[in-house]
Amino acid sequence: MAISLRTTEEIYLMRAAGKIAADVLVMIEPHVKAGITTGELDDICQEYILSQGATSACLGYHGYPKCVCISVNEEVCHGIPGKRRLHDGDILNIDVTVIKDGYLGDTSKTFIVGETSPLNQRLVKIAQEALYTGIKTVYAGSNLMDIGAAIQKVADKARFSIVRDYCGHGINKVFHDEPTVLHYKNHDFLPLKAGMTFTIEPMINIGTHKCRVNRHNGWTVTTADKLSSAQFEHTILVTEDGCEIFTLRPEEDGVNGISRFMINRPSA
Ligand code: MF3
Ligand code: CO
Ligand code: CO
C-alpha cells in the first residue's frame, strides 16, 4: 500500500500534537532526580498532558496500563512506570505519545540522573547522534533505507549495537502506521515524499542487540545481557528539501546542526 501523505490541515494538527509531546519532556526534566519513582513521574506526565487538552496514546493501547513508557538502564523500551526508584547514575528513557484533536505526537529522550559512568555518557550521546544522523538523511526523493544505513555507521564507529526488534513507524491519526523505519542497514527501498510523517527512534545498546520481553508483565523490554540501552525519538514530516521536526525541544534548536526546519537535500 502507498504511504499516506498529510494535508496542510493535518500538518497543523500534527505540529500541535508534537509540541505537547515535546513539552512533556521539557516539563518533566526538573523532576527526574534520584529518589523519585517512575510511577510518580508518570503521574506528573499524565496530569500535564490532560492540562493541555490532550490524552496519552499509550494508556490502554493493546492494554498498556500507564501514560508514558519509562525505561531505566538495561530496559530498552516499554518500561512500565511503577515502584522503581531512580538512583544517581541511572539513565532512563521517557517516551511520550499524545493525541491532540485526533493526531499523534511521539517523542522520547534519555535522561541522566546525577552523574553516570563515562560509558553510559557515551552511550546516551551516541544514541542522540544516531537519531540526528538519521534525520539528516531525509528529504523528498531520498530513500527510507538511507536512514538505517546512516545510523548503522554511527553505531558501528562507536562499537555499540542497534536494537533490531523495534522500529520507527509512520504516524498520523494511527499510532503505528506504514512505513516501518529500520534503524540498521537494510534494503527497504522507498523513495520519500513530501507529506510523509514518521518517527525515527533508534535504540542503541552497549552490548548485545538482543532483547527479552518481561514474561510477567508482557511489556518491559530489556537487553539480553542486562547492559545499558539508550534511545531518542522524534516525529518528523518529510518536506521538499528536508524535514520538519514536530517534536523538537528548545534545548535542541541550533545544536548539532539541528533545527525545526531541516534542509537536508544536497545542493547541486
Ligand atoms: N511510544 C512507543 C513508540 O515509540 C510506543 C509505546 S506503545 C506502549 O512507538 F503501549 F507501550 F505505550
Ligand atoms: Co514511536
Ligand atoms: Co515513542
Description:
The mean pLDDT is 98. Helix 3 runs antiparallel to helix 4. Strands 1, 2, 4 and 5 form a 4-stranded antiparallel beta sheet that branches. This protein has a 4-stranded antiparallel beta sheet with strand order 9-14-15-16. It has a 3-stranded antiparallel beta sheet with strand order 3-12-11, with no helix packed on it. The protein has 4 helices and 16 strands. The two termini are 32 Å apart. The chain is of the alpha+beta class and 268 residues long. Bound molecules: 2-amino-4-trifluoromethylsulfanyl-butyric acid and cobalt (II) ion (2 copies).
Condensed summary:
The chain is an alpha+beta fold. It has four helices and 16 strands.
Q: Structural class of the helices, strands and pairings?
A: alpha+beta
Helix content: 25-40%
Query: How would a textbook summarize the main sheet?
Result: 4 strands, antiparallel
**Terminal CA distance:** 32 Å
* Helix/strand order, N-terminal first: HHEEEEEHHEEEEEEEEEEE
| Radius of gyration (Å) | 17 Å
Shape: globular
The number of helical runs is: 4
Number of strands: 16
Unreliable stretches:
none
Subunit structure: Monomer.
EC number: 3.4.11.18
Protein name: Methionine aminopeptidase
GO molecular function: initiator methionyl aminopeptidase activity; metal ion binding; metalloaminopeptidase activity
